[in-house]
């Protein structure tokens, strides 16, 4: 479940739990990358001491975010709130998977 955004200048961060049985694998990663690319804000995803650019499929794959893993999203930019809403909703929806 997403936390309320915390503002620090133009940066916001939220946490979400990966609900998918297969975790963050290639198909959801591509949905995530495409959604992040629609915004100007820079988004990084933090997971168990690792971080990835939200627009880099390979970096996201290297996070090895399995089911139940908590990820922290940090967005910096003018549309940070909007991109956070979109990306956390995508994660919480399970990327449309059962």
Molecular structure report:
The protein is an alpha+beta fold and 98 residues long. It has one domain: Histidine-containing Protein, Chain: A, CATH 3.30.1340. It is built from three helices and five strands, in the order E-E-H-E-E-H-E-H. It has a five-stranded antiparallel sheet with strand order 1-2-5-3-4. A hairpin with a 2-residue loop joins strand 3 (42-47) and strand 4 (50-53). Helix 1 packs antiparallel against helix 3 (80-92). The longest helix is centred in the C-terminal third of the chain and has 13 residues, at 80-92. Mean pLDDT is 91; it is low at 1-9.
CATH-level-4 superfamily name: HPr-like
Strand order of the largest sheet: 1-2-5-3-4
**What's the CATH architecture?**
2-Layer Sandwich
**Poorly predicted tracts of residues:** 1-9
Number of helical segments?
Answer: 3
Order of helices and strands: EEHEEHEH
Q: By helix and strand content, what is the structural category?
A: alpha+beta
Number of strands: 5
Radius of gyration in whole Å, from Cα? 12 Å
What is the arithmetic mean of pLDDT?
Answer: 91
- Work out the strand percent: 25-35%
Q: How is the biggest beta sheet arranged?
A: 5 strands, antiparallel
Task: Report the CATH C-level class.
Answer: Alpha Beta
Write down the CATH topology. Histidine-containing Protein, Chain: A
Distance between the termini: 17 Å
**Tally of structural domains:** 1
Quaternary assembly: single chain
Shape descriptor reads: globular
Helix content: 25-40%
